[in-house]
Specification:
The complex is a heterotrimer of chains A (279), B (225) and C (210). In chain A, 50% of the residues lie in helices and 12% in strands. In chain A, helix 4 (68-84) packs across helix 5, helix 4 (68-84) packs parallel to helix 9 (224-234) and helix 6 packs parallel to helix 7. By secondary structure, chain A is of the alpha/beta class. Chain C has 3 domains: 1-81, no CATH class; 85-122; 130-210, no CATH class. Helix content of chain C is 79%, strand content 0%. Chain C contains 7 helices and no strands. In chain C, helix 5 (127-142) crosses helix 7. The chains are: A alpha/beta (279), B mainly alpha (225), C mainly alpha (210).
């Protein structure tokens, strides 16, 4: 068997090892990378930045741990931005794991920035039903969420003296890994109740949401780890996304090389076969 | 990062389970299978607990106790009855009754989706494609935006023509459909690039965890931390 | 009949903001939250029964793993019912150190399979496939610092259009957006057509047979 034939039949475990090393080694150096801004991420940053201090933001955690690596860094970045601007935050989840992931972030941030539960932020928890839950929020927040995630009635939480329905929020941010998610927030919160909606999605689904951004239905969007790194650069606070871009860089280079080598090998072997057939 | 010995056990276990899943890359093995089934069980248990505490307790139990008036009681009792009908699907002799609950769920979803899809994904999209033509100009820095608007209109039309299979793709119509395929190939290429980015990002997350939290936990457990 | 009745109420309520209609819509929305919760319980009970059956009568080599599923399911539920509920230390431990790492790692395996597929399967065998791959190359390079390193010299010059991040942004905001818009509209029209068929009773497969 020639070298090219051996290459064409390379054991996939060697490919696994190469990509593993391409990701592992750059991360050892822990170098944060500032990334070039794209307009779509800049717009969501500017949307939140332009809100007056003390605005009330609804953050919907619509993802689970399988997409933690992409969506948690952008969630942390948006929360840090809201804290910098002294905005108040209400967390909900259309996925069951979402509120607990939000709680994990706030367990660390609340004591660090002296945030008071019930005044500066509230976690309402999870409700199933997607579109229906969002529509219910339009009638009254207490309809789907009579209590917060710990069972405290909303009337005992000072933040809800200012917000009674979805229309009272100044901005909705949805970090979304699929259905239900940001699409449903656009359908109801933006198109029906005219509340600005922005958010973050996994890189897999990001291309599909450019149509909503172009039409103005989405104020802005962070797509995957790259989007999170851009937001971290904008708020000037490097986090896991900025540190991860070095590995992303090398891994993409390896994938491109794999495609080039794979296609070149195929072409050369194909030509050899055709030549030997002609002879 | 400060960590006590007790606090190190959790991250250490998390790292071991991470490596158990990664062992599948070498080949399928009992350690991977154990971790996989553990995931299925904890996932289902988690979903159940969250549904109890976040929905059943506030929206059924507490709502029933705080109900004032017949309508409030009906608004809890009737959906619970429908919910129990849904569970009858597990008993073959009475599974037909679950269709009532299913019909209700599907009716709600269809009623919502029919109008919102039309509004959000058809009318708004048509509007966004055509509205730039109200203020099209090719000077004073507007050339780029105007050219893009024209490209977008032609590309959307070409792709929609491709999707219309009731007419044969021949002649002039076929040429437009071919342009549509090119547009879709660029779209799918962009999606492919982003998909690669997404998959690599998930691996980056796990490697970051192993290099930070897990490594610190190991150092604490063996007394180096 | 039930499907059509409920769907029509939701459609009417969208266009008729009268209190009499809104009240019915709001009530039905509350009902939906509760009914869908029971659907989750149905899925859980189904998993439990199937796992129990396999654990007792399934293939001998797989019985242990089905017991793992059952024990972990019941263990997680028990932890959630301890004092503190969803905030109990045991439930927190299971979520943070068992559920999160397993969930995140299972999906991270895809990175390796994408790499393997890129070597063995992503072949430019036609003009269309070549267009797809070239676009993917540009996007993959433009979205990481690599694109900036390779074409950073062009930024701010008369050859600014060669700057890879700019090309990537244009591809995403113009060409990709146009294709995605067409897909979105096509899918929406299909969904609306199916919805109308369901409301009129022409489509009844969701009921699972007579």
């Amino acid at each position: 068997m020639s070298f090219l034939e051996k290459l064409d039949r390379l054991d996939r475990r060697i490919i696994f090892l190469i990509i593993g090393v391409a990701v592992f080694v750059p991360l050892l150096f822990r170098v944060p990378i500032k990334v070039v801004q794209s307009p779509i991420v800049q717009d969501i940053y500017e949307g939140i930045q332009a809100l007056p201090e003390g605005s009330i933001i609804l953050l919907s955690f619509d993802y689970d741990p399988s997409t933690l690596a992409e969506l948690q860094p952008m969630s942390e970045a948006v929360i840090k931005h809201c804290i910098q601007k002294k905005h108040k935050m209400v967390f909900i989840g259309l996925w069951p794991q979402g509120p607990k992931l939000a709680q994990g972030i706030m367990d660390e941030m609340a004591p660090r920035y002296n945030l008071q539960y019930g005044v500066d932020y509230v976690n309402l928890g999870y409700k199933t039903g997607g579109l229906v839950v969002i529509s219910s929020l339009g009638s009254a927040i207490s309809d789907p969420f009579p209590t917060d995630m710990n069972g405290t009635p909303l009337r005992e939480l000072p933040i809800f003296n200012e917000v009674k329905t979805l229309r009272d929020f100044d901005y909705v941010v949805s970090m979304s890994a699929g259905d239900p998610g940001i699409k449903h927030w656009v359908m109801i919160a933006k198109d029906r109740f005219k509340v600005p909606v922005g958010g973050g999605v996994t890189a897999v689904s990001a291309p599909a949401f450019y149509a909503y951004y172009n039409s103005g239905q989405l104020e802005g969007l962070m797509g995957g780890l790259r989007g999170a790194a851009e937001y971290e650069t904008l708020i000037d606070t490097p986090g896991t996304a900025s540190y991860g871009m070095s590995a992303q860089n090398w891994a993409h280079l390896m994938i491109i090389l794999f495609i080039i080598i794979g296609n070149s090998t195929m072409l050369i072997l194909k030509r050899r076969k055709e030549k030997s057939r002609v002879r | 990062m400060t960590m006590t010995f007790a606090g190190a056990i959790g991250p250490f276990l998390a790292g071991v389970l991470t490596l158990a899943i990664f062992s599948f890359l070498y080949k399928d093995n009992p350690v991977y299978k154990f971790a996989e089934h553990l995931f299925v069980g904890t996932s289902a248990g988690y979903w159940f607990i969250y549904n109890v505490y976040n929905i059943f307790i506030p929206n059924v139990w507490v709502a029933l106790h705080e109900a004032e008036g017949f309508r409030d009681y009906l608004n809890v009792v009737l959906p619970v009855i429908l919910g129990v009908f849904m569970l009858m699907r597990l008993i073959p002799s009475v599974s037909w009754i679950s269709r009532w609950a299913m019909a209700f769920s599907v009716g709600m979803t269809v009623g919502f989706n029919t109008i919102t899809e039309l509004q959000t994904n058809v009318l708004q999209q048509i509007g966004a494609t055509l509205s730039p033509f109200a203020s099209l100009h090719f000077n004073n820095g507007g050339l780029g935006a105007s050219v893009n608007a024209i490209i977008i209109l032609l590309a959307v039309l070409a792709a929609l023509v491709y999707f219309f299979f009731s007419k044969e793709h021949t002649g002039g119509y076929g040429h437009i459909a071919k342009v549509g395929i090119w547009v879709l190939m660029i779209t799918f290429g962009a999606s492919f690039g982003y998909t690669v980015m997404a998959r690599i990002s998930l691996l980056i997350g796990r490697v970051q965890f192993l290099q930070t939290d897990w490594w610190v936990a190991i150092k604490h457990i063996i007394g180096l931390g | 009949m039930i499907t059509a009745f409920v769907a029509v109420i939701m459609i009417v309520a969208y266009f008729v903001p009268k209190p009499e209609v809104s009240v019915i819509r709001d009530d039905l929305q509350q009902w939906f939250l509760i009914v869908v919760t029971f659907t989750m319980v149905l899925g859980l009970l189904n998993l439990l029964f199937v796992s129990l059956h396999k654990a007792r009568k399934g293939r001998k080599e797989d019985r242990f793993y089905n017991w793992v599923t059952i024990v972990s399911l019941l263990g997680t539920m028990a932890a959630g019912f301890l004092k503190g509920g969803i905030n109990s230390p045991a439930f927190d431990f299971i979520f943070n150190y068992i559920y999160i790492p397993l969930s995140a790692t299972i999906f991270s395996l895809l990175a390796f399979y994408v790499a393997s597929a890129s070597f063995r399967a992503f072949r430019a065998k036609s003009v269309m496939a070549t267009i797809l791959l070239i676009t993917a190359f540009i996007v993959m390079m433009g979205r990481v610092p690599l694109g900036d390193w390779v074409t950073g010299w062009a930024q701010g010059t008369s050859l600014d259009f060669l700057y890879l991040p700019n090309i990537t942004n244009w591809i995403m905001e113009v060409m990709n957006m146009a294709g995605q818009r067409a897909v979105l509209m096509g899918a929406a029209l299909g969904l609306i057509a199916t919805g109308i068929k369901i409301i009129l009773g022409i489509e009844r497969s969701y009921l699972g047979g007579e």
